[in-house]
Amino acid sequence: MNPVLYARISADYPNRPGVLEDVEFAIGRGEILGLVGESGSGKSTIAMTLLRLIESKGGKARGELLFQDRNLLALPGRKMRRVRGREIGLVLQSPLSALNPSLRIGAQILEAWRAHRQGSPDLLQLLEMVNLPPEPGFLNRYPRQLSVGQAQRVLIAMAVIHRPALLIADEPTSALDVVTQAEILRLFSSLNRQMGTSILYISHDLLSVASFCHRIAILQQGRIVEANTTAEIFRNPQHPYTQALLAAIPKPPNCLETTTDCPSLAWSETINQAVDDGQYRAKDSLVCASRS
Amino acid sequence: MLWLGRVARQAASLAATVLIGGLLTTALVRNSPGFDADERQLDARLDDSTRALIQAGHAENHNVLRFYARHMRGLLHGDLGMSASLQTPIAGLIRSRYAVTAEIMAAGLAAGWILAFVLALAAVWNGACARITGVFSVAALSLPSAALAVLVFVLHGPVHSVIALVLFPRLFDYLRNLLQDAYAQPHILTARAKGLHPVRILVRHVLPGCDRQLLALAGVSASMAFGAAIPVETLGDLPGLGQLAWKAALARDLPLLVTLTMLITMLTQICNSVSDWWVRE
Amino acid sequence: MKAIPAILLALLLIVSLVHGGSYSSQHRESIDAPPSWRFPLGTDDLGRDRFVRLLDATRISVLFAGAAAFAATLLASLAGGIAGYTGGWFDHMVVRTIDVLLSLPSLFLLLVTRALMPLNISPVLSLLVTYALMAAMGWLSPARVIRAGVRSFFDSEYVLQARAEGCSEARILVRHILPNLRPILLAQFWTSVPVFILTEASLGFLGLSAGEPFPTWGSLLHELQNPLMARPEAFAPIVAIALCVCCFKRITPWRVSQI
Ligand SMILES: Nc1ncnc2c1ncn2[C@@H]1O[C@H](COP(=O)(O)OP(=O)(O)O)[C@@H](O)[C@H]1O
Ligand SMILES: [Mg+2]
Q1: Does the CB of B209 have a partner CB in chain A at under 8 Å?
Q2: For range C129-136, the mean pLDDT
Q3: Considering only CA atoms, which residue is closest to atom 21 of ligand 1?
Q4: How many helices and strands in chain A, by DSSP H and E?
Q5: Domains of chain C (ranges, CATH numbers)
């Protein structure tokens, strides 16, 4: 079966050529692909290139981008706009700043709908789908009246409102605390199962990706160094960088006894153990955000 | 009730600013070294008694507070006093001249804003435009407003285009940076990812976020337009307020200068208060 | 390519420092002469060599604008620095004053204050007064920027860190605030110079800059009040001003220009 998306792309920014060098990957129907790499490796640039939003940042993409049998890179701007939001959804990193602070939540969700369709959708059902309180009062709130987790759910709701074939999530959980993070991951999983949406899940955290991605691609300095099923990556990492990433995962001592040949059990254990570690990371990123 | 209180506080602050500003101007004018220097005194043909008469005329204005109080009392009756150099009521002068200035300022402001906004938007949307418009704006910014006025006159261009040209590069610079920052916000990326039309993104997401900066810029640009109107009216011999200010300055016309200063202070402060209030709402 | 205006300006400045002519000597035999080998830009209606006057004007305008910019930056750092440091009512008053004065048309303010100076002062004094007034007006917007800078430094984490380490106020000021303030001050200085050059040009055009016989770029422009009668050579100062201001814009980074 054809994949939903096949990409072989390079990307440049005017003052920084070669951010992506011949990055090649495919996402199958209903598949969740995890894309892991350290910060600055070009993960966000991939997300921007798939939607051709990199042009709005002055950058340029080359190569081939086949989505549902069309080459997106050759599409005229107007047609590309029909694809954004309707066939490919995007969820961004810091949810509170990704929402327009001066518009009510309801207006922003409705806007996502009206961009491609007439009439009005069942907003309350949409809220329910992403585990938000299905009340009209909630739609009247402004982004500043939401928690970070709620804002992220609103963003997800806007991204899936047209039931896109592909959902791109660019580090959607790195601004969240661990508990909310786990909830959001569950939400992605259930959206994938309910709607059959393929998901490109971008993260710098191998562990969070491992818990629900079918396949994982490892990105290093604008190149994909390894791509394989999750189990293979964990059991049999090929590239030294992947091995380094795996070695960096904190291994709780009691894990060693139970993990001989049941990797999935090992991950869930490790996730539980990594809670404290993750909490510190979430706090750090908050400090960074408030400083900048 | 709260609303009324805020308006009252704004009005009080405005009145205080204007009153203090007027008093300071008067004190400055009175104590300035040039105050007693009247061109006529340098005239060798006059005899001593005439000079004494001129001195006496000035003496009337010597006590700052008394002068100011008299001025204010007149103001309350709608009497702005007499111009010393032109020997005409100031109110009449302003009434007969403001239309000229208002007209060229309005035309110049409109043209300058449209030009600056369109080019700033082009520069933000398109990298190639950015370079061309940047060169254009640096060129316009490198000429003194008087030189721009001279060039337009030599080329027989319309008068208000001088004001537009003076305003354009400053507005352009500011608007370009403002729009650039506004477009770089993450929520604009969300709007783009929704597949919204670029015009809708501009109108719904970019401009509403810049309202206070745009308002402040509008006030500053009106003030700059008046500054530019001074050389324009002087050069074109247009009977407007800018030319009046220049004449008053050359003739050291105390009452006229003080009145003009207070008038301009009041207008700009009213603009500021209104925009403050708007932003807070 | 980008260096061309800078090279031309440097050449002009060097020549203006070493040439032998005098801006006030009159050549009575050739009054209002067209350009020639002897007088590259001709002579004015008093028979003075326009080229020599332009050279001297370049030196005077650039140096005095620099001095005025220095004074204005100094004033601005005093007012803005103290206001930002102390906060409270003093800060409030300074900000309010700056806001009010900045919202007035600056050319109008200069016109009023320049008119307050006596008529019969010596040319040197009138030159000084003109630039002093510009400095007295020009500190407003730099002060605002500096105040904002000082405020943000004192609110920063590294000052908090220094306080936590038990640093004294003076040490924080010297070690943490001043070094960070330096680029701001420099930027304000470099942006002020072209502003003063342009302002002086407009003042001179209106006949309110230095008195005769001193040549400044502005007072040379005074001739153009009747632009249709003026000779083409009389436009030379405009070219010099544009060159110079262009150079200064190149030096200063884009974002520091403040309205
Ligand atoms: N707008 C831009 N202009 C120039 N370079 C950029 C721009 N955005 C990102 N980069 C550069 O591209 C590289 C990849 O960035 P990014 O895709 O944001 O990485 P990641 O999302 O993995 O942290 C980085 O080195 C960054 O410096
Ligand atoms: Mg990123």
Answers
A1: yes
A2: 89
A3: A44
A4: 14, 10
A5: 47-257 (1.10.3720.10)
